[in-house]
Amino acid sequence: MDVLIHHLFIAWSLLDGLHSEMVLDVPELREGIPGNITCSVNKVKRPVKIELSLGNKSLPEIRQENIYDTASGTYTSIKTVTGIDRSWNDKSFTCMSYIQGPTNDSYVFHAFKNQTVVFKYPPSSMIMTSQETPINMLPWYPLTIICAAIDSNADCMIKWTSDLPDLHLISKTQAGHRDIVSTIQVNVSQGNSGHNISCHTECVDFVVHFIKVYTLDLPRPPTITIRPAYEKSVTGNLVGVLECEADNNPIGNISWIAKQTNDTQINCYNSTVCLLQLNETTVASVTQYACFAVNVHGQDHKSFKATNADGDTATDGSEGKLVFMNALIISVVCLVLCFGLFLGCVVYKRLTQSDEVIRSKGMSSDVATNFQPSTPGNASVQHEIHEPRYANNLASVINRSCTQVDGVNQLIYADIDIEFLEQNRAARSTQGETAHTVYTSVRFTRETERNPAC
Prior knowledge:
InterPro entries: Ig-like_dom, Ig-like_dom_sf, Ig-like_fold. The chain is of the alpha+beta class.
């Protein structure tokens, strides 16, 4: 009896499923752009159970929505997948639905659909490889360089550039399953050393910033450059050093030698830079040093003179500091002297201007007019007006007179330098000399400012 009921339920479920519809939406996805995969079952009498899988693996539990349509009296069940990445590309996505059985925990298969996922993504990295540098020095070399854009299924290509305008870059590109590989073969000469050949990736639907640079480094003998420098010693003080840098290929050995004694100071093996540390003792006994560099293609050497005075290099940082301090002190002294001179000029100008103001205030209104003295015979003659002569000698014998003004007991005193006027008149010749106007100081004081003498 139970078996009959079970078969009848299956038959009823199949008839009910004839009116339902399953929709699987798998759009073309791109990395960096949000995208979803949706599976839905429409027009079912009761909500169905939806299961999703990628390849042969079931996806983790995803929340399902069941929407009831009151007009038709049916349900729509939906599951939406997010968080898709490039590992989903080219894999089969499957949606399966089950109808609830006679009991709540039993389900009967209803329908399924599957579709291949297309997920476009740009390269994740880029690499460059090249052949080893030739050992022998030749006029020109065949050079092969390979660039590869790794892990991409997008529409991308590799382009080549160089800072050598006469270098023709012809590439061959191969597109693998997920890699794009490009190869160039060029002929370079000895004079091309130091120039660059670069490759970069360009994609149609993505913006990428991968670039690789190959610097031409052809076989050559050493070329030495010596630079004086400083470095910190164990105690933290600056110590003078000589830096010898060798530009060569392949890398060789560098040595510092004291020329007076021909003793080797230091050896640097398989290196492009070698440092010689100096101190007061070594520079006092040795003043000439030579740097030697050698590789399989040749050698080079240069000399350097070290001195404690104003030579090519200092043995430590104290000499440079002393020169700086001396220059600073001299600058400060010069600045103070200039400021003092400027201040003296300003004070002198102020004092001169004050004296002229005092003199101009002591003159009466009659002094400002032109003076025309009468000559004998009452002939009016225009004489040349000379600068007035002032006398401010108030320390001489002064004849004081008293004059009453503005009422009773309102006295004012006029101090006049009579002695100066008399001396000036006696010294002046009365014949054949043009008369000069002579002025003297007059000082007025009130009664309240001095003891009454009248």
